[in-house]
Amino acid sequence: MDYINLALKAIFVENILLAFFLGMCSYLSQSKKVESATGLGFAVVFVLTLSCPMNWAIKEFLLNKGALASWTKIAALQSVDLSFLSFICYIAVIAALVQLVEMVIDRFFPALYTTLGIFLPLITVNCSILGASLFMHERSYDLTHTIVFGFSSGLGWFLAIVALAAIRKKIRYSNIPEGMRGLGMAFTVTGLMAIGFLGFSGIDLDKEPAPKAAPVAEIEADVVAEAVDLEEDA
């Protein structure tokens, strides 16, 4: 239940795009067509699912204070603290994964590669990708929680961009005021989607169900029994 709660929280309640507004550049630019939004969304899910656990492993086994000594068994490395290299290492891992995704899409989906254009390699500097790794670092998740959080954050970003693309497709021929066309309506719809996703904040699977109230008949029977006991004692 802990993992399900974390997944629901990352997808809906604390959606990395609609709650923290990370990754807005590619979100607004590639949400004009459902096809391009879907392709970019899958790419973000893939990169987030792999980059978060990889960055967790780098942090735990290389960067934290004493991490090198824990597996090399060299006592002199106990005081070594490389945590100041976290940003550089995280971005390097993300860049390598994005390069892999770019080559795969270019090889097997050339039409999608052309549609995404410059925004595909720009996943490297997509703040939602780095933001998920920083949240993982700040909240001190273990490996399993990190994998669930990374995948769920990517899925939440995917749902947000595909939903906006579908809505923009539906309102393309609507009579929208001239000043609200384009990005104006996209920002308005994004705000409404954020409010809608906020409605899931009432979900909390960690809470135990409230105890059931005793039936009235049982309560009356208990009261009568207590009264009889008091009379007998008297």
Describe this structure in words.
The chain has 234 residues and is mostly helical. It has one domain. It contains 10 helices and no strands. It is globular. The N and C termini lie far apart (53 Å).
Question: What keywords describe this structure?
Answer:
mainly alpha; about 230 residues; single chain
List the helices and strands and how they pair.
Layout: H1 2-13, H2 24-29, H3 34-63, H4 67-72, H5 86-108, H6 110-116, H7 127-139, H8 143-170, H9 183-198, H10 216-233
Helix pairs in contact: 1-8, 3-5, 3-7, 3-8, 5-6, 7-8, 8-9
Overall body shape? globular
Strand content: under 5%
- In terms of structural class, how would the helical and strand content be classed? mainly alpha
Low-pLDDT ranges: 208-216
What would you report as the Rg, rounded to the nearest angstrom? 26 Å
Q: Helical proportion?
A: 55-70%
Total helical segments: 10
- Total tally of structural domains: 1
Number of beta strands = 0
